[in-house]
Amino acid sequence: VLIAAVEAGGTSFVVAVVEDEAQNIVDQKSIDTKTPAETLPEVVQYFVEYQKANSCTFDALGVASFGPVDLNKNSETYGYITSTPKLAWKNCDILGTIRKGLGNIATFAFDTDVNGAALAMAIHFSGEQKVDSLAYCTVGTGVGVGILSNNRLVHGLLHPEAGHVYFPRAEGDSKEEFQGTCPFHGDCLEGLVASASLAKRKQISAKDLASIDDNDKLWEIAAFYLAHLCVMLASTVSPQVIVVGGGIMQRTILFQKIREQATKLTNNYLAIDYHQVIQESPFGQNAGIIGAAALAQQAYQTKNQ
Ligand SMILES: [Zn+2]
């Protein structure tokens, strides 16, 4: 099975050719995210050239995108990016444009980048233990959560958007001192722990966050909010595994802090061992593209079983 996989991110798109297993990336390229009119033709060109050079055709397409996106197959705007703060991408028919470029490829899947990653993680963790409910959180440029429940990705009215919920403010991080950076909500979770938000507290740029010491109080504050997210997920969708990934989580000391804070917040009310439940991404920074491939693989299997 030859898969064309696209991870649509706010900063860059990753395009990849994947064979059989979602992790089996045989070719990969990163493309800067500009406007749809500039970026999408580059995406299509990559796959068309690959087909030509290797005399092959793709069996399935998987697109995992930043959101919000329209996942309702009965909607006229199915496959569109909808109300994003990235204005050039608002109401963009991302799925349709890429499909068209690939000759209206018949087998395809479209979901949020985090739902795709949640599916890929569930496949991975099922190798060791039976996992049919899992949450994948990304903490980077934005904050997003994908959820697989009883082996199904959660869709409904929309799709999970758990980056934009409010939690109590951490000690030493009051609203008076820092109002948050979300253009829609101010101090929602994303407005408090996305890379731009953490950087703004230190008056540095996001790429300089790596220079902040492990012992800095900033990481305690970030862990407090992310612990709240984990406790909320554990209490609502009851995942067996919560994977936390994204650029910020390269600061690996955060894992222990989040596990400890989550344990403290739960206060023995639920018998949840957060030291087991909260895990690092087994695919590192490739979670999104492997997720896109997993979506395509699932669509192919559903069609051909
Ligand atoms: Zn928000």
From TrEMBL:
CDD domains: ASKHA_NBD_ROK_BsFRK-like. Its EC number is 2.7.1.4. GO terms for molecular function: ATP binding; fructokinase activity; metal ion binding. InterPro entries: ATPase_NBD, Carb_Metab_Reg_Kinase/Isom, ROK, ROK_cs. Keywords: ATP-binding, Carbohydrate metabolism, Kinase, Magnesium, Metal-binding, Nucleotide-binding, Transferase, Zinc. Its cofactor is Mg(2+). It catalyses: D-fructose + ATP = D-fructose 6-phosphate + ADP + H(+). The keyword Iron does not apply. Belongs to the ROK (NagC/XylR) family. PANTHER family: FRUCTOKINASE, TRANSCRIPTIONAL REPRESSOR MPRA. This is fructokinase.
